[in-house]
Amino acid sequence: MARSVAVAVVLVAMAVAASAQAPTAAPTTPSGPPNVTAILEKGGQYTTFIRLMKETQQDTQLNSQLNNSFNGNGYTVFAPTDNAFNNLKPGTLNSLTQQQQVALVQGHVLPQFYSMDSFETASNPVRTQASGTDGPYTLNITATSNNQVNVSTGVVDVTVTNALSSVKPLAVYSVDKVLLPFELFGVKAPAAAPTASSTKPKKGSEAASGPAGSEDAAEPTGAASARAVGWGVAGVAAVLGCLL
Ligand SMILES: *[C@@H]1O[C@H](CO)[C@@H](O)[C@H](O)[C@H]1NC(C)=O
Ligand SMILES: *[C@@H]1O[C@H](CO)[C@@H](O)[C@H](O)[C@H]1NC(C)=O
Ligand SMILES: *[C@@H]1O[C@H](CO)[C@@H](O)[C@H](O)[C@H]1NC(C)=O
Ligand SMILES: *[C@@H]1O[C@H](CO)[C@@H](O)[C@H](O)[C@H]1NC(C)=O
């Protein structure tokens, strides 16, 4: 008798526990696709990026792609903080056309889900949503096994820190710099020469010492040796001049 009461109590207790678990588990399990805007809003420091996504309609675009079962690879978003936008030169965003702003935002979105660990498998250069007819708009990603991940556009290098979301199909990572695309900020073409983007800046042009600096590293050496030869010839001429 006592035993059957005890069994009944245990059964009731189990039933209560089960029914108590069900309602608490349900709201934490997202029923629909992830919402990039909601994730960014929750992060609390991405108001400029949210506004840019909205203005360029990349928020609705990405949300509808996330709701499309054909896009099985998922997506990765690098979300610059408000601080990152504040650190841009004043007028940087306003200097861009609407189409360039779209490319800027799309350059922060990869058509592939990467967890912090799987960045190591990325093969450079990595395509973004901006990659296409207007240019490569790729990123280079370097990762070490201790979860250090660097992203480079060729103009901007940044270390990826915290994940706002890393549940397939959407990973969102915070970055503290805006990933300025090389295509828009890499080579400042002189206004007079629209085709100059394919020609190298002349040596001695100090303005080109920024992102293109490493490419030109060999030139000063060549110039210096040419100058050395020049001085050598002058020296020989001077010596000959004295002798004659
Ligand atoms: C995504 O979240 C934002 C902000 O919470 C909301 O305004 C928007 O309607 C949501 N979009 C979808 C497709 O659920
Ligand atoms: C996702 O797509 C389904 C089917 O097309 C649609 O019924 C649903 O409203 C969409 N959900 C959102 C959040 O857009
Ligand atoms: C990432 O960048 C930091 C700072 O520039 C550098 O110290 C670090 O070695 C880089 N890590 C990788 C994996 O490239
Ligand atoms: C990106 O990686 C590719 C392939 O490794 C390399 O050819 C290219 O120079 C890199 N670009 C930058 C900007 O680091």
TrEMBL record:
Residues 193-219 are annotated as: Disordered. Residues 33-179 form the FAS1 domain. InterPro entries: FAS1_dom_sf, FAS1_domain, FLA_A. It is found in: Cell membrane. It is a lipid-anchor; GPI-anchor. Keywords: Cell membrane, Glycoprotein, GPI-anchor, Lipoprotein, Membrane, Proteoglycan, Signal. One of its GO terms (cellular component) is plasma membrane. Residues 1-20 form the signal peptide. It comes from the Eukaryota. Gene3D superfamilies: FAS1 domain. SMART domains: FAS1. GO terms for biological process: plant-type secondary cell wall biogenesis. The keyword Glycoprotein applies. Belongs to the fasciclin-like AGP family. PANTHER family: FASCICLIN-LIKE ARABINOGALACTAN PROTEIN (PTHR32077), FASCICLIN-LIKE ARABINOGALACTAN PROTEIN 13-RELATED (PTHR32077:SF54). May be a cell surface adhesion protein. This is FAS1 domain-containing protein. It comes from Leersia perrieri.
